[in-house]
Amino acid sequence: MPISSGTIKFISSLRQKKVRQNYHKFTAEGTRIVGELLRQSRYRVDHLYALESWEHNVGPDFDVPLTRVTPRELGRISQLTTPNQVLAVVDLPEVAPPVQDTGWSLYLDGVQSPSNLGALLRIADWFGFSRITGGPGTADLYNAKSIQASMGSFLRVEYRVGTLADVVAAAPDLPVFGADLEGQSIYALDPPPAGILVIGAEGPGIRPETRPHVGRWLTIPRAPGRDAESLNAAVAAGILCSSLRRG
Questions:
Q1: Of 127, 129, 189, 207, which has the maximum CB count within 10 A?
Q2: What is the pLDDT of residues 21-62, one digit of tens each?
């Protein structure tokens, strides 16, 4: 049975943050991400829309309603340039009660790019940063580009929304480091076993209202004679996280 025009309209409308928040749902696409969604319990998959080939390869080992669609129908509901076999409509999770940070975590201060947010989730996942807090102005985690760029890491890294003041109040004993061109070289730091690393947006960096909560500033030194203005936020975070984890 063909997918209805109303369903197509509804799934397409989930591109908008206000619609996602109103219906408490978002979309995730692709064999890998959807496969991971079906193997975890934090997120409830509401419905699957899949090509016959995906259904045949995966088999009936999941208890989720499924609508078989044609490639053309999948293209109409997909947010990808090239649709990838399966799309899941997923319930937004309940907000978990706050817990005190005891390891390393990231705070994102106005990182507006969904793709950068997804990349930062992958970096946090890789280096064992258990939590990311998105500050004001940071992209929505459930934007399709954020989900896609995370390559499934959004399932393994806890994500919250709040201010750095909130984070510091919940973990007052943890040191707070901020990325800044005028900071101390990351390579001269003896990393502590836990802390909070603040990453700002490309260009403006960490906002003035956030800066008073940062205790120490770190930078990634440029090679002598180079005039590059800055690094991509996710690239910089990857280098800093790697160095902080070397201890």
A1: 129
A2: 999 999 999 999 999 999 999 999 999 999 999 988 876 678
